[in-house]
């Protein structure tokens, strides 16, 4: 099966499949014309890769556990140990993010409330940037520029 067919069947992009191949996660034979040729086993392999990526594993971890996951005969306790290790890493990330959320919430709680004019200006700003997912939904207080920025402005004479 050609790479485009594998992409259609698995939902992965052609680019992603090429990337997986470059990492050694999947391998393709080459036709006499140089095109990649995949087999039916690669369908399951790509699906497992996508599933592992979706739950937060990196490609290095996937390379470690993929052989055990796609071949039941090779499943060992090392597979479980590696997955437990990844689960612990994800839980640590969640704990770190939770601490960041709590710290930011405390800063917001300590900040002076916005005046009516500031609230209106914030609402206008939010509506202007509503389509941009990276734009913060609210900015409760003015945060000073980072010290390096202030220093560079001073050095430039601003």
Automatic annotation (TrEMBL):
* Database matches in SUPFAM superfamilies: Putative DNA-binding domain
Molecular function as annotated in GO:
DNA binding; DNA-binding transcription factor activity
Q: Which residues cross the membrane?
A: none
Q: Return the annotated region ranges for Disordered.
A: 115-158
Kindly provide the name given to this protein in its UniProt entry.
MerR family transcriptional regulator
- Name the Pfam families on file: MerR_1 (PF13411)
**What range(s) does the HTH merR-type domain occupy?**
1-68
Matching Gene3D superfamilies: 1.10.1660.10
The domain of life is Bacteria
Keywords assigned by UniProt, alphabetized: DNA-binding
